[in-house]
Design brief:
Elements (H helix, E strand, L loop, with lengths): L1 H19 L15 E6 L9 H8 L2 H4 L2 E6 L7 H6 L5 E5 H9 L4 E8 L4 E6 L14 E4 L4 H10 L4 E4 L5 H5 L5 E4 L3 H7 L4 E5 L9 E6 H6 L1 H20 L3 H10 L5 H13 L18 H13 L24
Parallel strand pairs: 1-2, 1-3, 6-7
Antiparallel strand pairs: 3-10, 4-10, 5-8, 5-9
Length: 332
């Protein structure tokens, strides 16, 4: 159903763009030393997982780069792809597999950096559940977002069948049912369950071999026309992420709590700790990974996985990705 709705949305979006003409983001230009306005549409409400961008904003790194950056909070109805393609935002966030799929659909997209080198998504089980890995979950019910690529991948990889229960974005059923399994982010939901007095274990979906970047992407045409602005934004964002990971994250925490008053300091600290400990943003230095980096080889591997699963058409290359458009700050 999610895939069907996604395809319908893409069809309607393409129809709308064809009818009214594709709108470019407003021209970024420096005049008399004025700051260049840039908007990033995030993928959820302000949280620890966005910390590097908020750190860069709070500490003035974007302004030092000559940019006036607006961070728009996301949510279920943020319509980030539409905002990028119609010029309401220069950049948005999504998983790399989704961006490649957009490109395969013929949409004019291009990733410019990775804010997560590794996917923080996992399956969350109660600590005393007998399952020891994802491969043990054949026939089990899992609350997840229908249509997400990882579901097809793990079923094919392990020869299992998951009974998907549509995600309600609530922990009520998990807390009341010791057999329940739920899709989660290792940086978020386990904190709430432990706060409720229960213990959990998590199986990161990345351990299956499906480990997409979480990326910032934009409209390829605009990126091609404004390489200097893209480089400034990415360089300042990478600087913000490094500062957030290696130094005091309080400036980001303060700004996040101003924007999202439901966010507790304890959850921010938990999310930050997991991002640092799991090397989600910094990656594994001994494998050549770094903050912000986009490796074309990993993206090619991801595109190959999507083709094998039948999610994108057979072919060559990486839809929605031109390595020449990746700014220097995000290159290997």
């Amino acid at each position: 159903m999610k895939a069907l709705l996604t395809n319908l949305f893409l069809f309607l979006l393409l129809l709308g763009l064809a009818g009214c003409g594709r709108s470019k983001p407003e021209q970024a230009d420096t005049t008399n030393g004025e700051l260049i306005p840039v908007t990033l549409q995030t993928d959820w409400f302000a949280q620890a997982e966005h910390g590097g961008f908020y750190q860069a904003l709070a500490k003035g790194y974007y302004r030092e780069a000559g940019l006036d950056v607006t961070l728009l909070q996301g949510g279920p109805n943020s319509m980030s792809l539409n905002k990028v393609l119609t010029g309401k935002a220069q950049f948005a966030m999504n998983k790399a597999d989704a961006v490649i799929d957009f490109g395969a659909q013929g949409l004019d997209v291009q990733p410019v950096m990775a804010h997560f080198q590794h996917d923080p998504q996992a399956l969350m089980l109660h600590a005393d559940d007998p399952a020891q890995s994802i491969s043990d979950l054949d026939g089990r019910s899992v609350m997840a977002i229908p249509g997400h690529t990882w579901i097809k991948y793990v079923e094919a990889q392990y020869g299992i069948d998951l009974k998907i229960v549509p995600h309600t974005f609530s922990l009520e059923r998990f807390l009341s049912d010791p057999q329940f399994i739920q899709q989660c982010m290792v940086t978020n939901e386990p904190f709430y369950v432990r706060q409720a007095g229960q213990q959990v274990k998590t199986f990161p979906t990345a351990t299956s071999g499906f480990d997409p970047y979480h990326v910032v992407y934009g409209q390829a045409e605009w990126i091609r026309e404004h390489p200097d602005v893209v480089e400034r934004f990415v360089a300042a964002s990478v600087r913000g992420w490094k500062d957030y990971l290696e130094n005091d994250p309080s400036p980001a925490f303060d700004l996040i709590q101003q924007r999202n008053q439901q966010m507790s300091r304890a959850l921010l600290a938990y999310g930050h700790d997991r991002i640092v400990r799991e090397l989600l943003t910094s990656g594994h230095a001994d494998q050549g990974e770094a903050v912000g980096q986009l490796d074309p080889r990993r993206l090619q591997q991801l595109a190959d996985q999507l083709r094998k699963l039948g999610i994108i058409p057979k072919g060559e290359g990486i839809p929605g990705f031109d390595p020449e458009l990746v700014p220097a700050s995000a290159r290997q």
